[in-house]
């Protein structure tokens, strides 16, 4: 998949500034077009409140004018720092839905959003707009958590060998041509608890773990061979609880981007990455790229 159009959403917060900066770096490296969006959402008001707000100068047209001026300064600063001058768009509506709709209509290849919005203290864990975008967007969504200091260098792709994981790995390879790519799988031994409950000793359980490890390695080798650029990927498997081990391994190799495939039929829940993605969206310290299986 060639990335030709990247969309970044901003509410002019620090988190959004970091996300747009990251989007600009990616667009520059990929030779892609960059669009920066800002959504204005005025909740429905009664006539009396509408008249009062309009009288104080808070009409939607006035807010759009103000946002446009702020956006112009925002992208001017961005161009000075990155050499990328994006197209800008002021939207109307609830931010997550407005951005998702616009990205779909524009056939964007990637949506980039900051982890937290302007009202950080009102956000529990990941900001509500970011989390809704992860659920609503048809495109891959990059959740930027860190201020970008350099291009991504080491990428961890968590996999359950599903089509969504394959799409995620191929996108990472296409988007990040010079990065190191690690594919990581966490396996469990079927009925491991039951073995203990049945009185099996540690040697017996270790025996089944070795069988599980060999099978996981075989599946990893086969999975990598199905990827578009198999020679670029380093495969690793470990036994245990996926949400914890993925974070641990990301820290171990100093990954600056975590990539997950996801089936979104039920809001991040359908495969292994239902629970894993939901956990890592909130718990991972680095940036996170969530890729739907349809990519």
Automatic annotation (TrEMBL):
Keywords: ATP-binding, Nucleotide-binding. Belongs to the universal stress protein A family. This is Universal stress protein UspA-like protein. SUPFAM superfamilies: Adenine nucleotide alpha hydrolases-like. It comes from Sterolibacterium denitrificans. PANTHER family: STRESS RESPONSE PROTEIN NHAX, UNIVERSAL STRESS PROTEIN RV2623. Pfam families: Usp (PF00582). Transmembrane segments: none annotated. InterPro entries: Rossmann-like_a/b/a_fold, Universal_stress_UspA, UspA. It comes from the Bacteria. GO terms for molecular function: ATP binding.
């Amino acid at each position: 998949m060639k990335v030709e159009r990247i969309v970044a959403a901003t509410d002019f917060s620090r988190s959004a500034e970091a996300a747009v900066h990251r989007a600009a770096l990616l667009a520059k490296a990929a030779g892609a077009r960059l669009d920066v969006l800002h959504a204005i959402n005025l909740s429905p008001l009664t006539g009396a409140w509408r008249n009062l707000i309009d009288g104080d100068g808070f009409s939607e047209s006035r807010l759009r004018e103000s946002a446009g001026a702020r956006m112009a300064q925002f992208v001017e600063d961005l161009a000075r720092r990155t050499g990328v001058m994006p197209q800008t768009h002021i939207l109307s509506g609830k931010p997550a839905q407005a951005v998702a709709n616009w990205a779909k209509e524009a056939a964007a290849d990637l949506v980039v959003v900051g982890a937290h919005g302007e009202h950080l203290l009102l956000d529990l864990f990941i900001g509500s707009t970011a989390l809704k975008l992860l659920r609503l967007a048809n495109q891959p969504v990059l959740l930027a958590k860190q201020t970008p200091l350099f291009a991504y260098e080491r990428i961890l792709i968590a996999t359950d060998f599903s089509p969504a994981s394959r799409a995620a790995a191929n996108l990472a390879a296409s988007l990040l041509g010079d990065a190191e790519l690690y594919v990581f799988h966490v396996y469990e031994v079927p009925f491991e608890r039951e073995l203990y409950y049945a009185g099996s000793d540690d040697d017996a359980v270790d025996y089944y773990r070795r069988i599980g490890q060999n099978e996981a390695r075989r599946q990893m080798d086969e999975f990598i061979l199905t990827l578009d650029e198999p020679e670029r990927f380093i495969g690793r498997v470990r036994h245990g609880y996926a949400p914890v081990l993925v974070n641990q391994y990301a820290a171990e190799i100093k990954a600056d981007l975590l990539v997950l495939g996801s089936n979104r039929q039920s809001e991040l829940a359908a495969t292994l990455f239902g629970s894993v993605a939901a956990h890592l969206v909130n718990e991972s310290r680095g940036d996170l790229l969530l890729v739907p299986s349809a990519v």
